[in-house]
Specification:
Radius of gyration: 25 Å
Enzyme class: transferase
Distance between the termini: 45 Å
Number of helices: 11
Strand order of the largest sheet: 17-18-19-26-21-24
Shape: globular
Helix content: 10-25%
Protein name: mannose-1-phosphate guanylyltransferase
Structural class: alpha+beta
Oligomer: single chain
Keywords: GTP-binding, Isomerase, Nucleotide-binding, Nucleotidyltransferase, Transferase
GO molecular function, one term: mannose-1-phosphate guanylyltransferase (GTP) activity
InterPro entries: GMPP_N, Man1P_GuaTrfase/Man6P_Isoase, Man6P_isomerase-2_C, ManC/GMP-like_b-helix, Mannose-6P_isomerase_type2, NTP_transferase_dom, Nucleotide-diphossugar_trans, RmlC-like_jellyroll
């Protein structure tokens, strides 16, 4: 029997702004130990017994970034498959697409383990044991969910009520799913002893989840199947990395797998587990990963504290000082600072809504932006000019492109650059420079074995990132204007 973990990486994590943004969402946030959540999820998934491959469902703009993160933790020995979404359509679409792909690759008896890329699990041994229990129940024809043993009356999670009169191996049939409760209701759930936090992790036989989705959410299955057919038709049959057709995918209903299937099916079981699980849903949750000092302050970075208590500070790039304050969250990034009371940690998402409504880039981008070929960092910007630090990976190349409205000066700081400028192609060594005139076709590449670092100074009447025409591109972006 084939067994495939499916990593769903689609959430933005707006309550963790300003570190989490649309182009650098929560799964890519570094934790105090240096790894990020998507790396931890991959290692946890690929380390399970009997894994045939790891399938990741993510936004196509995050594909190269995801590959980079997997590569950093040693993904070479694990077969990988990707389904790339043009935009988010919730978890039922991701599960349906993954199930249809795996059904075609391995058949209906394949077991798929659905994991969120942005959850933290600290007890790997208990997690592995819970997965083995879920596999046993799922192989008997059940849709299995993982219920987290509640530690306190949490009001921010949905709950699963187990039918403890109906035992299934090491789990129970599910009596019902319940929405996020108020505090008194949550206390009652804790005392009852049959309610579990809904973790959003599942284990299914591929054939069963397809059959049940066809019965309970036929609109999801029909539109996802049509999307896969159109996508395969345009990309051929070698689809280890399948990019979903945006026109077809726009017809897929935006609904979670819980609403579309788990709350409707009569074939749902729960495996209770205590695995050190957290969805890292706010800065309060993130702060718990950092040890507190004698006054309850939790600090990451260079932080000075005087007469301050029970604060959390994230300031990895510059000195931050606290004087005489209590119960605050302070999160410092190069282009935005968050200061919030701990009691209002969930309200950070309202700031993100405001930024989006006003089309402010701070909801979307950091000053450092990741691209398939490397990164660029905006150092300074003013009237008719912008300065960037550009780093190109060894062997990587930007697209052959042209800008209508801006010219560029390139100064090599370290490494070697191969430059195409109009009809010319030449090399620039460290401390050398060149000028790219507006309207000229140009390309930057790193032919060396160390990163290429250069400073780019743009000048012109329009400096937006959309002033670009691509003629050739290694990463399939020629049609993006």
């Amino acid at each position: 029997m084939h067994f495939v973990p499916v990593i769903m990486s689609g959430g933005v994590g707006s309550r963790l702004w300003p570190v989490s943004r649309e182009t650098h969402p929560k799964p890519f946030m570094s934790l105090p130990d240096g790894q990020n959540l998507i790396q931890k999820t991959f290692l946890r998934a690929s380390g399970l017994d009997g894994v045939s491959e790891v399938l990741t469902v993510t936004n196509r703009e995050l594909f190269f970034k995801t590959e980079d993160e997997y590569r950093k933790v040693g993904s070479e020995d694990t077969p990988l498959r990707y389904v790339l979404e043009p935009f988010g359509r919730n978890t039922s679409a991701a599960v349906a697409a993954a199930a249809l792909q795996l059904n075609e690759a391995y058949g209906p008896d394949t077991l798929m383990l659905v994991l969120a890329a942005d959850h933290l699990i600290q007890d790997e041994t208990a997690f592995s044991a819970a997965v083995n229990k879920a596999k046993e129940i799922a192989s008997q024809g059940w849709l299995v969910t993982f219920g987290i043993e509640p530690q306190y009356p949490e009001t921010g999670f949905g709950y699963i009520e187990a039918d403890k009169a109906n035992t299934l191996a090491s789990g129970y049939r599910v009596a019902r799913f319940v929405e996020k409760p108020n505090l008194e209701t949550a206390k009652g759930y804790l005392e009852a002893g049959r309610y579990y936090w809904n973790s959003g992790m599942f284990c299914f036989p591929v054939g069963l989840v397809i059959e049940e989705l066809r019965e309970h959410a036929p609109d999801v299955m029909e539109t996802v199947a049509a999307t896969l057919a159109a996508s395969r038709s345009s990309q051929g049959e070698a689809y280890q990395c399948l990019s979903l057709d945006p026109d077809q995918f726009s017809d897929v209903p935006d609904i979670s797998i819980d609403y579309a299937l788990m709350e409707r099916s009569s074939k749902v079981a729960v495996v209770p587990c205590d695995i050190g699980w957290s969805d890292i849903g706010s800065w309060n949750a993130m702060s718990e990963l950092t040890e507190a000092d004698a006054n309850g302050n939790r600090c990451e970075g260079e932080v000075l504290v005087h007469e301050a208590r029970n604060n959390y500070v994230y300031s990895p790039e510059r000195l931050t000082a606290l004087v005489g304050i209590e119960d605050l969250l302070v999160v410092d990034t190069p282009d935005a600072v968050l200061i919030a009371h701990k009691d209002h940690a969930q309200d950070v998402k309202q700031i993100v809504k405001h930024l989006k409504a006003n089309e402010h880039d701070a909801h979307l981008l950091h000053r450092t932006v990741h691209r398939p070929w490397g990164t660029y960092t905006t150092l300074e910007q003013g009237h008719r000019f912008k300065m960037k630090r550009i780093e190109v990976k060894p062997g990587a190349s930007l697209s052959l492109q042209m800008h209508h409205h801006r010219s560029e000066h390139w100064i090599v700081v370290s490494g070697m650059a191969r430059v195409t400028n109009g009809e010319q192609e030449f090399y620039l060594d460290t401390n050398e420079s060149t000028f790219i005139r507006a309207g000229h076709n140009h390309r930057l590449a790193n032919p060396g074995v160390i990163p290429l670092v250069l400073i780019e100074v743009q000048s012109g009447d329009y400096l937006g990132e959309d002033d670009i025409v691509r003629f050739e591109d290694t990463y399939g972006r020629v049609d993006e204007q």
